[in-house]
Amino acid sequence: MGEIANITLAADTAAGAAAPTPWLLLIPLLPLLSAVLCGVYRALGITTKLPGYTTVLLLAVSFVVTLSGYLSFGGHGVQIVHAFEWINISWGDGPGQSFTANFSLYIDSLTWLWMLFVTGLATLIALYSTEYMADDQKTGAYARYFSFFSLFVFAMSCLVMADNLLLLYLGWEGVGLCSYLLIGYHYGKDSAVAAAKKAFIVNRIGDLGLALGIMLAFVHFGSIEYREIFARIAEIQTTVAAGGSVAWQIEAIPLLLMVGAFGKSAQLPLYVWLPDAMEGPTPVSALIHAATMVTAGVYLIARFLPIFALNPTALAIVAWVGGLTALLAATIGMAQYDIKRVMAYSTVSQLGYMFLGLGVLTAAGSAYHVFTHAFFKATLFLSCGAVMHGFAGQLDLRRLSGLGKIPGWRVTTIAMLVGCLCLAGFPGTSGFFSKDMILAEAFVTAGPGYRFLGWMAILTAGMTAYYSFRVFFRVFLGPVEYHAGEDHHGDDDHEHDDGHGHGFHPHAPGWAINTVLLALIVGSLAAAAPYFIDKEHHGWVGGLVHGSTAGHIVTPGVHTDAEHAAEAAEHGAGFFDDPHKWMYFASSAVGIVGILLAWVIHMTRRTSAASAPIADALKARLTPWSTLAEKKWLVDELYDALLRRPLKLLSHIFYLLDQFLVDGVIDGLGALPRLIGRSLRPSQNGVLQSYAVGMGGGLAFVLIVVWVLS
Amino acid sequence: MSMILSPVILFAGLALGALGVAVAMPRRGVNPQIIGAIIAGTAVGLVLIALGVIGVRSGEGLPGVFFYVFALTGLGSALRVITHQRPVYAALYFVLTIISSAGLFLLLAAEFMTFAIVIIYAGAILITYLFVIMLATEAPTEETLEALSDYDARSREPIAATLVGFTLLAALSGMLAAGVPGLGAPEASRGPIALERMPGKVQNFIAALGVGDDVMPAAFMPADLGAGLETAARREVILGWNRSHSPVVLSRAAGEGAIGFIQLVPRDPDSFRARLDAARAGERPAGVRPLPAALVELLPDESTGLPAFIDADPPFVMIRLPVSVAPTNIETVGLTLVGEHPLSLELAGVILLLAMVGAVVLARKQTEIEEARKAAVDSRLRLGGEGGAA
Amino acid sequence: MTMHTVLAQAELMGGVTLFHYLFVSATLFALGVVGFLSRRNLIIMFLCTELMFQGAGLALIAFGRYWMNPSGEVFVIFVLTVAAAEAALALALVAYLYRRKNTLDAESWAELAG
To answer: Which ipTM score applies to this complex?
Structure first.
């Protein structure tokens, strides 16, 4: 439990007043510039690859700025870079009687971690996109794509670097908007439009929770600026450490923030939008719906882990939701045939791991898993994208086989293999180390059913290994066979015949895709290295987390110094007493078993792409469970029946009420003055003297009344 | 509710008057205007006679004949103003009304206003009316000499109009006859008038007395001021204004030839009493400057019936102001107008100027229309001429 | 003895009270109202408003005399001013309207009819 430190937040934030470094503002502003430029290109009707290269260049500069910023950063403490005063209202001098939200960056080690992989991956994926999206150059959609892409990076930077909750919310909604726009990139396609709307609407539910959480935080902390909030939290931590209790409002804040995180990071019950979000272009899936945006929820909880730690119930909910999501998504992933969908469910599943990690208070493990997952999942998605690009949108693993033997697909195959190994948690890969940290911690931390959760997560790890290698074995090994997908139109820049099947020649990836894939292979493998740096804090990422606000948590009633020491001693005890040690072996074993199972089921006696006799037999044996899993446990149908249909019915009822009751009353009220007016109209005959009669008579009447009353 | 006049007589008279006016309003066909006028005149006369009886009964002698003459003339001619079918005659009857009310103003000692309304109304405004009547009436031809336009010959809903007008009158006069509590003016409005507001000749009179070393003038008190001494009793019937209700104590004390008093305040109140006594006794104590003989003569004693104000604290004396130096009505009005309402006076001037400008603008518009019409006629003629030539 | 005093005494001797004057003034006003409401000639309608002014003026002067306050008379001067201004404008308007419709009938101007 290295994360639990006794340094208070307030002391740390006070010490972290570093020299102002306004050039760090370039990190969010360069992507914004890129977005604007691409918008201008779109308006100018540029059909070259200029938008793509502009985006790559500016994002690369942004990444370099981030990197140099990180290198010049001392390690601990906080930098606040003030850009401009955005909102500043005050209605009194007392505490909580002013509302300040500046456009300022709050930069500590957690921010650096996120910004490094966000800008780095964004640059690589933008480079990949320059080739991947080339088909859209002529229509001008190319510039639109890169404009949204850059805007996303800007919004994500705002989200991660915000120094107040309002700016975070702006970024949060900004990434949601970009996600919506990019899922609906092919807006001519009904399924894309529906998926975009689904993503947006499901996220509304989560965002409502986040908005309420922010309001409650303002009401209770008197500010939405991180500095103030963490100072107040430090005070509360002091009282809690002294045995005091926590106000229920403080306990409600994490519950509300959590809802936002669940929505954005696709956790139960709001995960349904993410698999559908794969309707967007694959690079978008890789960047937004796998590597960066969906980790915003993890970031939010990690950033405010001190508040969550004050409420053990919230932590338990986070852990359980994460564990259950991981298991559910893995079961669905095992039965899908669309390889991109398998990846989507694996993303949901891995995000579940991250939430589990947060729930069991290993922010370091979660953040490390976010970091490694960003690399290997981007690798996997971009490999899928390469396949999709090359085979005209074909993604069905029953219609592709033996790609590894086709010349020109070597890099893609290796990338896929590396990605799958990492995902499966093969010993020695980055995914192995990051997953182990979370799994082990589930057995260390005390909590309701955490041990059971741990076993469940180990089972999920085995399933992950199985479904990831199922894809690899089916698509990249075995007999060579492929069928073009629906997007194959025999375009003139593709030198192959039109038509399906034998006349089709796959379109091997070009230099940009291969370069990016190579870079990501290196990245995925190298992501294991940080585990061995800074071992004291559970690796380099752990160090970064430890140095940030997430490193200073106090949970009510536990973790006194004595207990901490006892726990540390326990780590060094017998082999089975330290989960961190036996977990290496347990997860290795489970991962390898999963891979072998996939080999046995999907590689033995294979004759064609569509046939894997053992798999088919097994599927038939497991009916109806296999069918149910393939149909995603009918969750969408359940939501449809439980929520959408009743709501639609309700809206019809309200429509009728509005039409007849409300409109009737309003129309009746409207008719009344008209009636009165019609009856009084003759009195307004326009003749001066008839008005004067009214005046004189009225005066006489008033006089008589006064006289009688006096 | 005690009324100055029996309500039966008042309301019966008003009802009768209303009937008369309604009958007298111009209408086509049967024209009982004369009958109506007689009924209305009888009714008003009834009320006024009833009012006059009050005066007789209270032992005040004959009623003021001039008042009744002017009132009846004014009301009668007003009736003709609203009933006469020919606008020119209506305007002339209005002149008669003006002159009658000018007579009433004179009875009220408002000489300035008497002449002002005769000059302004009868002289200026009515001339304007006559001009417009002539402008806005078709020039009579042989056939139409006796013809009346419809809007002059026939009045519009005379019964409703009379009903409204006389209901208003009944309410007003009923309230006035009963006296409405709270209508009374504040005490201060009847208080002494500051000397600064008196004409210069009054101040000259005081200066000529040569008593400035011993006393200084404080205020002017009109002879009628005594009415204010009994305001509590008067307020019950504040509108009753006859002798029995207004004992003019000071006025009686002042006797003939005095219109009021000047209040003099001793400069040295402490020694004043002793010096006065000494002066009356003919003594001349050493070391004390004697009061001037003129002052001693001026001072009232018990025989004049004046209250001994000397005993008041601080003591003051009252001296009579002779009629020769009394401010006339015109002087009073002038002083009030310029001294108290200068801003309103200026504003009235501005309003008149603006009215003149407005009238000029309106008149100009008329000429423009005329010119436009003339131009149209001209062009038609010219076209016709050309057509004829071709 | 000035006219002032003579007349003041004459009133008192005649048994004429403030009410006498106010009654005459109210009756003048009411006759003006009746005329204004029932006569259709625009010029006579304005003449009737002058009648009402007269009634009001008489009341003001009577009250002024009763309270020995010259402000009543001064007020009548202002009323007179307004009446003069009103007469000038109103008569100009009457002439203007007459040119437009060639009639003085008040009922012919009913553009505001609802």
So the answer is: 0.87
